[in-house]
Amino acid sequence: MTPPFDPSDPIGIDDLLTEDEKAIREAVRTRCEAVVAPHIADWFETGHIPARELAKEFGDLGVLGMHLTGYGCAGMSAVEYGLACLELEAADSGLRSLVSVQGSLAMYAIWKFGSEEQKERWLPSMAAGESLGCFGLTEPDHGSDPAGMRTRARKDGGDWVLDGRKMWITNGSVADVAVVWAQTDDGVRGFVVPTDAPGFSAPEITHKLSLRASVTSELVLDGVRLPEDAVLPGVRGLKGPLSCLNEARYGIVWGAMGAARSAFESALAYAKNREQFGKPIAAFQLTQQKLADMAVELAKGQLLALHLGRRKDAERLRPEQVSVGKLNNVREALEICRTARTILGANGISLEYPVIRHAANLESVLTYEGTVEMHTLVLGQALTGHAAFRG
Question: Where does the secretion signal sit in this chain (predicted)?
Fold first, then answer.
């Protein structure tokens, strides 16, 4: 028998998921509905999020570093992690950012490149949400070109001394540990920096109109002295931080579709109930065109995310393919949110509905972890063999 049409899954993507994958998706969705949904509009409006409390909630659920193995991490698949990111971002991009920075940037860097001592010291408490981490790469004058970073680490006897600034750092002012990338005489190196180290400070960035339910900070390193074993021993050069960013970008491929789904569902429900000229606006052709276009792009983006997730689980996923996913899915998610806003009319700018919040957040997601321009040129280089963003 042909199953009935499901407006929440119009092309039947659930048929491609295992029961375990569906169960993880449902567990994250349920937790978000319980601990995030009742408060998220207020958190966004006030520019405050209880990051440490939420970290413990999601540590208890097992989603912090869930795609890593050992050290208290859940060891789940890339697809399962992606589905978790989708549900987290359906709640709010700031929430997915908290989890993504914790697991795919800070924890992944230590797990992939750290010493055994560094892993034992930090990963179990980070997986449990008892310790928060941040990832210091972007600088005030160096975003898309991290090779130009000015943060410097120099040897002084048996110690390292770090000086510099990092900018737009998620979790920065609430973190217990920062993974900081700096220039050294031997190239770019990563350092595990306890945030209570003398000379380290993380003033919070305020006056944001996007990602308001997220802690964003500057990192200031003023003669921060660290022992010799603070350096990540497993990598030298930019391949270290760039491989971490690729992990985070993969989560965004899924997460953006969560924000888009939330906006689409809100618009669909609104269109069925809002009456004008004696009938629901869902009965008008132009509204149906908007809903159909949104549904098609949402389904295509979810299929792309799932395909890339299966490739990642098969260890066949290339960085250029992650760029395709990040470029397409965030761009289309933002367009879905903007179209949903038009269906809601004036109500679309109210925090009583999630649409304008998702749209504002996605303006940041469009830029971070690689701008549209950079992912376009990454794909352009892969297609043509010419690196247009280098001299």
Answer: none
